[in-house]
Amino acid sequence: MIKKEMIAMLLAGGQGSRLGVLTAKVAKPAVAFGGKYRIIDFPLSNCINSGVDTVGVLTQYQPLRLNTHIGIGIPWDLDRNIGGVSVLPPYEKSNNTEWYTGTANAIYQNIEYMDSFNPDYVLILSGDHIYKMDYEVMLDYHKEKGAEVTIAAMPVPIEEAKRFGILITDENRKISEFEEKPENPRSNLASMGIYIFNWKTLKDGLVENASQPSLDFGKHVIPYCHANGAPCYAYEFNGYWKDVGTLNSYWEANMELIDIVPEFNLYEEYWKIYTKSDSLPPQYVSSDSEIEKCIIGEGSQIYGKVYNSVIGCGVIIGEGTVVRDSIIMNQTEIGAGCELNKAIIAEQVEIGDNVKLGVGEEAENETDPHIYNHGIVTVGEKSVIPSNVSVGKNSVVSGVTTAEDYPDNYLASGKTMIKAGDKA
Amino acid sequence: MRAIGIILAGGNNHRMKELSQKRAIAAMPIAGSYRSIDFALSNMTNSRIQRVAVFTQYNARSLNEHLSSSKWWDFGRKQGGLSVFTPTVTSENSSWYRGTADAIYQNLDFLKESHEPYVVIASGDCVYKMDYNKVLEYHIAKKADITVVCKDMPAGVNVDRYGILKMNEESRIEEFEEKPIVAKSNTISCGIYVVRRRQLIELIEKCAEEGQYDFVKDILIRYKNMKRIYGYKMQDYWKNIATVEDYFHANMDFLKPDIRNYFFRQYPDIYSKVDDLPPAKYNVGAKIKNSLISSGSIINGVVEDSVIFRDVFVGNNCTIKNSIILNDVYIGDNTYIENCIVESHDTIRANSYHKGEGDIKIVIEKNDRFVI
To answer: Which of B264, B274, B289 shows the shortest C-beta gap to A299?
Structure first.
């Protein structure tokens, strides 16, 4: 008989639209992070490091990159005889076929998967946070408290609390009330979107609310369980936890990795983060280069000058090019004599010679100021930028662009240029 | 594929000096991220050879660890796979491998139980890329009994530590001498052979009956007139690691753009065991010139014309020039290292000074990591 004490369900189907062009072709959990990782590596590594060896990954939006990245789970040792990682996309049924319409709805549609492992507990995770957490400790807490639902929560500054789902608890950390993005928060304990449920409680909550449109954990399932008397507890977490939902927070989280001793340390032996690494050669640094305060992935070739930046694997930075405060993802090639300031360049981009990114006066983005801000220039995956052009701040370029697309060889600050096509 | 593979990785060499104390040559780290056996293994998998046996004997722990999973070279298949054969005691035999032919003889069942018609024999101590299918096609076209891959060395290179061969105009080998005092040609054997499996079994069994143990001396040289032994010339990069000098230069070669490009960016790739290490990190004070840096390393000082392997820490105000720093070395602040090979897992205390004068210096300090 198959039996797993706790299995994990990882929600990885969202688009993450606030990352703009970075998620135009890939789901947010598959976005590159920290030189060689992808965001989903963090929850997956946490699972295996916590002894959770059965993980269902729920995918929906642009799953190709995610599917190829996860494969059968070899990098995380999740290729198991029983359990391991399973990618769970929405599927057609004999009646009532639907997409995953909400977080809990996605889980509801996979009750059969969870039932097959006969679990006592189910851990619900989301694939868009950077953190290291021992879910086993959280499970111990869940058992010790006699909880049926445990929500991981972290204290946030009270003035920021109104951006989060807030938990109001008694001195035992038993939750008495939930407030979703409250105007006047009564507590600063913010939900991290990590839940442990007793399987029976979860199943009941899902089945009873199945007809609810866009069934959601925070809005429907947890309040239902709470209202039905299931003891709900908050599990306080005080380690590093970063939501990388916006371009600016994504940029900041990457930059935090290059501190001398970063708060989030990838270099510790304990609690390793695993990723699908191709077997890649070391990186080459030429005689004319300068590198300071950077992390650089395998197989990259640096001929220019790079400061305060996070560079992925297989990147080429040409001679005389100066890169500052930027994130450059895997397999991007940058020509000679370029200047990059506070740029986020997605994967497999081709940039010509003498290109300047992030120059000129700051101006608000014309189409999506809530996405492209803080002076960051963003370049989408497989884009091409021709030689001898400049791009201003808060602007975004995506697709194959040619010199004609840049009047006076300059794309002003705040402009959005989304063109068709991929780099050949 | 029509062949199985054998990789001879048992050897050691006193000319590797202290570097051989820890490991067989086949396990020597190369080019920042590889071990020398990775080249033969990757060539096998890229030539679509699915069944490979590695024969090891000398200090095989490091090699065994490296080969602990066959998945890195994609050998972990139901069809075929990677086997590591060390000498074992049997009712008939309690000897170590007394030579390369003896190593094959002691594992003759591996040959007998295969069904592929050919065998590719390679050694684990060479750096090269090769499609063995090309040699096999040549072998079949020549109707050869054994094909030996060979290479013309540039004039002036000392070839007295290689097997030297001379071919007639049809490429049939007429003369073969092992480590001659005076070499009659500059064509050397690369230690890569293609032979029909049944032919090999026959030769090896005969060899064993006669109490002979060496593949080169007792098979190639002894049978060179009786059997059709042909040479296949390879033109591309090939380097054998037998001395500290060789080893040093084989690594430094990867700083040359054409060689780096050939191995790192052209099809097919070389594979190695993947360590889950974070990207390399460069802090304030890092100054890198013309060097290879591998993942997991943290650099705070100056590195010039050097190869830095995985998981190396270079302290503040250090200078490393023209050196090779092997895996997992910690180098304390204000240290100066020039013309050296620093042995893996070592800890160099702060304010150390190491310089190879004339020769390459091998640095082994064996300090404790956490007392500095």
So the answer is: B264
**End-to-end CA gap in chain B:** 54
Helices (H), A244-389: 247-256
Q: B343-352: long-range contacts (C-beta < 8 A, 24 or more apart)? A: B343/B18, B343/B19, B343/B22, B344/B22, B344/B29, B344/B309, B347/B372, B350/B315
DSSP of B110-127: HHHT---SEEEEEETTEE
Strand partners, A165: A180
Q: Does residue B1 have a pLDDT over 80?
A: no
pLDDT at residue A149 in the model: 97
Quick: pLDDT tens for B112-139.
999 999 999 999 999 999 999 999 999 9
Q: How close A198 gets to chain B, by Cα (Å)?
A: 34
Angle at A370 between CA A368 and CA A372, to 5 degrees: 65
Which of B68, B70, B288, B333 is most worth mutating to test chain A (most A CB atoms within 10 A of its CB)?
B288
Q: How far is CA A418 from CA A61, A362, A367, A401, A415, in A?
A: 20, 20, 11, 9, 10
Helices (H), A228-336: 247-256
Cα A158–A163–A168 angle (5° rounding)?
60
Q: Which residues contact B113 (CB under 8 A, 6 or more apart)?
A: none
The string of DSSP letters for B13-64 reads -GGGGGGGSSS-GGG-EETTTEEHHHHHHHHHHHTT--EEEEE--TT-HHHH
User: How high is the pLDDT of residue B21?
Assistant: 87
Using CA atoms, how far residue A93 sits from A97, A103, B338, in Å, is 5, 19, 69
Q: What percent of chain B has pLDDT over 70?
A: 99
Give me the residue label for tokens 């302290």: B315
- Listed by start position, the domains of chain B span 3-264, 281-363
As averages over each run of 10 residues, the pLDDT of chain A (424 residues) reads: 95 90 94 95 96 96 95 94 95 91 96 96 94 96 97 92 90 92 90 96 96 93 95 95 92 92 85 87 94 95 97 96 97 97 97 96 93 96 96 96 94 93 80
- CA closest to A288 among chain B residues: B289
Determine the CATH number of domain B281-363: 2.160.10.10
Tally the residues of chain B.
Answer: 372
**pLDDT tens-digit series, residues A11-55:** 999 888 899 999 999 999 999 999 999 999 999 999 999 999 999
Confidence of residue B78 (pLDDT cuts 50, 70, 90): confident
Q: CA A417 to CA B316: how far, in whole Å?
A: 44
Tell me, yes or no, if the two domains B3-264 and B281-363 fold the same way: no
Quick one: DSSP state of residue A117?
T
CATH number among 3.90.550.10, 3.40.50.720, 3.30.830.10, 3.40.640.10, domain B3-264: 3.90.550.10
What letters, b where the CB count within 10 A reaches 16 and e where it falls short, cover A216-238? bbbbbbbbbbbeeebbbbbbebe
A–B: how many Cβ contacts below 8 A?
109
ipTM of the complex: 0.87
The runs of H, that is alpha helices, within A188-340 are 199-208, 222-227, 247-256
Q: Is the Cβ pair B280, A292 closer than 8 Å?
A: no
Ranges of H-type helices in B77-193: 100-106, 108-112, 132-141
Structural Rg of chain B based on CA atoms:
22
